[in-house]
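Q: Structure tokens for this one, please.
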Amino acid sequence: MRDALKNQRIRVKICGLTSVEDALLAVYYGADSIGLVFYEPSPRSVTLKDAENIAKKMPAFVTKTALFVNPTAAYVQSVLAQVSIDLLQFHGDESPEFCAQFKRPYIKAVRMREGIDLVALAKQYDASSGLLLDAYKAGIPGGTGERFDWNRVPKAFSKPVILAGGLTPDNIQQAIQKTQPWAVDVSGGVELSKGVKSAQKIEQFMQRVMSKVE
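A: Here is the predicted structure, written as tokens:
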């Protein structure tokens, strides 16, 4: 699949948005998806009310993604009941059965620890819309700001690959060239501080994603 997608436009999700202003900024510069974090320990977490307000302001054709880490089913349902969500992202140890029960498209995050079997995980999470590959750091489910070895991304893979972990305007073209992902996911790499985005960094990131990588 990745060879066939080599010349396709790379999709972009900007995650960890905490305000309407930052979400509109991301969309203005061309983000395909915004990420709302429903995980209280994260400095980028949002309340249901704030998430509802952000989602209501999003224009057509922008995917609103809700990120969870080992939630209860009741909590996911409460978010879906109040916030207009298009895609679920599970960043913990959720089973395929858990992820699929909400009847929404979902992606499964994989923390790239040593010995991880991506081929087996792709089969296990066959119902997913893709696997998000993120850096591994013990005790931290995501948002580490660290990158993993991009050489570990398979050359041929059965699921769309969403590349995350330590992406910045400075390294994004190298990352795309090396891994040829379906999409990229950035949070800390376009921030002024945790949960507060930088217009300049978002613009630079989007421009470099959209530029042809030789």
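A few notes: The CA atoms of residues 52 and 83 lie 5 Å apart. The longest strand covers residues 63-68.
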